Amino acid sequence: MNLLLTILFDGITYASWLFIVALGLTLVFGVLKILNIAHGSFYAVGAYAGASLVGWLLSIQMAPAFSLVALFAAAVAVSAVLAPLTERGLLRMFYGRDEVLLVLVTYAMFLMLEDITKLLWGVNPYYVSDTYQAFGTLHIAGQSYVGYDVLLIGLATGCGLLTWWVLNRTRQGKIVTAVIHSAEVAASMGVNVSRIYTLAFMCGVFFAALGGALTAPMISVQPGLSVGVIIVSFAVVIIGGLGSIEGAAIGALIVGLARAAAVHIWPPAELFSIYVVMAVILMFRPEGLFQRIQARKI
Amino acid sequence: MITFSAKRVLLVCALAFAVLLGLGFVLPKWLVFLGTIALANGLVSLGIVLMMRSGVVPFGQGLVFAAGGYTAALLFNRLGITDALLLSVLGGVAAFCISLPFAPLLARYRGIFFAMLTLALSMVLYGILMKTDTLGGSDGFNVTRPTLFGFRPEAAQSTLLLWGVTAGITCLMAGLARVYCDSTRGLLSLAVRENELRVEYMGMSVVNLVAWNYLLAAFVGGIGGALGVLALGHIDPNFSYWTTSGEFVFVAILAGYQSVTAVLVSSLLLELVRSFSSAYFPNTWQLVLGIFLLLVIRFLPDGLGSQMYRLLPKRPTKD
After folding, report:
1. DSSP-assigned states of every residue in B53-74
2. B282 contacts: CB under 8 Å, gap ≥ 6
3. Cβ-count burial of A234 within 10 angstroms (0-12 exposed, 13-18 middle, 19+ buried)?
4. What pTM does this model have?
5. Domain for residue A229, yes or no?
6. Is residue A179 included in any domain, yes or no?
7. Residue A90 with chain B: CB contacts under 8 Å
8. Are strands B141-142 and A137-140 parallel, antiparallel or unpaired?
9. Which residues make Cβ contacts (< 8 Å) with residue A184, sequence separation at least 6?
């Protein structure tokens, strides 16, 4: 029973940060139709920016609990600077091209951002574990849970619900949905599609950076962060169905629980359990769990 | 679409092999080594181009690259098979066999789902290789100098021998790929790319066609993996990692799906850019590579192959 609870909690915690990152990825794909490999780099930049800002706050004797605000601020800053720069300055040149070509454009961005991150922050690891410990430990049903992990679960749920609410219950969200369905028709109705693209990309980068910033207190922030996270995020959005928020949530849970089960039951399977799950799901649901059926062209 | 007769293709390949072999004696050793790696990697990208012609792009060709590489390395170290030619063919056969159960399944997928499923398979292999200590785990293991028909070269001659084998196999594979592309099945692949439903209406099994293209790509990729490990003298799980697969896809995109020669030229170009950027910009070589990729995608959207076709003399049409 204890093992089951541990797997469940570890799985949900892992799924939480993964969902935040995957939410950005699925949003960008839904609106811009780009499977963004550079999303992993935005995650890494978010982690570095968060670690730097929190490190500075701690050095001036600020209470570690304030770090949470700093982590959010870091994600906003990364999104505000990097998203318009890459979307307006680079991606715009390639809109309308083949989707594989667009994946390669983001792969090039990924390579560039890898080195830019190293140039800005160096290769030495950053530690801001004080924030992780600042939220104490919770004791439930004889088990101890780190407060920061519980907070992370709450934040991920909040991010998901807020995004769902904005997309489904606000005017701006309905405009975005219109662009998702048909950018041409939306443009003919007077929607500034170009602005929606930039906004959607900014939101996507924000979630990637937020995922990175919130993970920074749990790990040592060092080069190589982006490589691992992007493929796992891809697995999540593919399992859930590209462009679906509900799908990303379920996908993150499936991946998180599969990984946690592997770690606790058969550790050697940790590295490939996620991909086995993805392959099995795609065998039965070829376009993911929440993908709408599309007509084939004749 | 320009097609070539099989006889003419094989003649050009024989000529190309003779030229490449001659260059091996003239060019500096480092360039010959780089060329060997480029041709070995180019074979994997050649397989991707075969698939691209039927409208799908595998993002997990690291699977067959690693399968071929590990097979050659294990046969070399455990069974004492040291012949470069035999190891290459066996690498290709192993990659073909490993891909065989997946081919009918993968052939039903299209677009990004095909890409991601192939990537998942390569990452599963990566995970298994990382945790299998008998295969060297994350460190991998080394392979020494191969032989050819019983001849064991000195250290200085080894690079040249492997260059000769790689150039020979590559020219043969490139020629066969050209013949296949110009065959009925090859041309039908292009039709699948345009509209697969129409091809089905014509009575052709699209699934069968895509599955066979995948298997052919696996065979060629496995040979590339075997040659790669013999050239490098070392193998590790990174052969199957997604970034390795990404580079193969990039070479295929850079080349385009029209020309087989363009694939090998693109692979050499990528190796040269990577080599020079890591030599002259050791801390920012990925930045340089990224800029190079962007420039290529921006200014050569149809690949090098399309430019090469423009240079070919135009033949008058019969009607």
Report:
1. TTT---S-THHHHHHHHHHHHH
2. none
3. buried
4. 0.87
5. yes
6. yes
7. 294
8. unpaired
9. none
pLDDT in tens, chain B (319 residues): 455 677 888 889 999 999 999 999 999 999 999 999 999 999 999 999 999 988 899 999 999 999 999 999 999 999 999 999 999 999 999 999 999 999 998 998 888 888 888 988 998 899 899 988 899 899 999 999 899 988 888 877 889 999 999 999 999 999 999 999 989 888 998 898 888 888 888 888 999 999 999 999 999 999 999 999 999 999 999 999 988 998 999 899 888 887 888 899 999 999 998 888 888 888 888 898 899 889 988 888 777 877 776 666 665 555 4
Paired strand residues for A143: A140
CA distance B157 to chain A (A): 36
Residue A29's alpha-carbon distances to A237, A248, A264, in angstroms, are: 10, 12, 33
DSSP B245-286: HHHHHHHHHHH-SS-HHHHHHHHHHHHHHHHHHHHH-TTTHH
Question: Which helix (DSSP H) or strand (DSSP E) does residue B2 occupy?
Answer: none
DSSP state of B318: -
For residue A242, the distance in angstroms to the closest alpha carbon of chain B comes to 10
B258 phi and psi angles, rounded to 5 deg: -90, -35
What residue has token string 């696996």? B218
Domain residue limits at A22: 2-236
**Count of domains forming chain A:** 1
Q: A255 lies in a domain?
A: no
A104/B287 CB distance under 8 A: no
Hey, are the CB atoms on A271 and B127 less than 8 Å from each other? yes
Reduced to 3 states (helix: H, G, I; strand: E, B; else coil), residue B163 is: helix
* A270 occurs within a structural domain: no
